[in-house]
Amino acid sequence: MKVDGEGQPLLQQQQQEVAPLQDSYMQSRAEALQNVESTIHELSNIFNQLATLVSQQGEVAIRFLYFSLMHCIDAYLLSFVALFKMIYDYITITSLLICPLLSIMIK
Fold first, then answer.
1. Across residues 61-75, what is the average pLDDT?
2. CA–CA distance, 67 with 57 (Å, rounded to integer)
């Protein structure tokens, strides 16, 4: 067994010198893991907030589409009513003109 100048085995002396380095390394690894954990937690919060925003914006988009669709339906119905009134007026005027002619033709 090799012994240094103070009578300690060389292996024991090397282990004593390496121990503080290992402790320092382990501490820095623990801090790094805590930083990773913290970053993952922050990312989780960000994605949760993003999901909430997307959900809210989705609701706004659905409302916008709904009101746009309702506006189009209203415009269509107004056009349909106007067309129906024009057809009704045409039939009324035509019948007013044709009925006297028919009565003259029948006599």
1. 86
2. 15
Tokens of 29: 């690894």
Q: Is 91 helix (H, G, I), strand (E, B) or coil?
A: helix
What pLDDT score was predicted for residue 6? 57
What pTM does this model have? 0.43
- Phi, then psi, of 8 in degrees rounded to 5: -90, 145
Residue 79 CB neighbour total at 10 angstroms: 10
Q: Please, is 13 exposed, middle or buried when counting C-beta atoms within 10 Å of its C-beta (0-12, 13-18, 19+)? A: middle
For residue 8, how many other CB atoms are within 10 A of its CB? 11
Contacts with 4 (C-beta within 8 Å, 6 or more apart), sequence order: 10, 13
Task: Read off the tokens for 106.
Answer: 């029948």
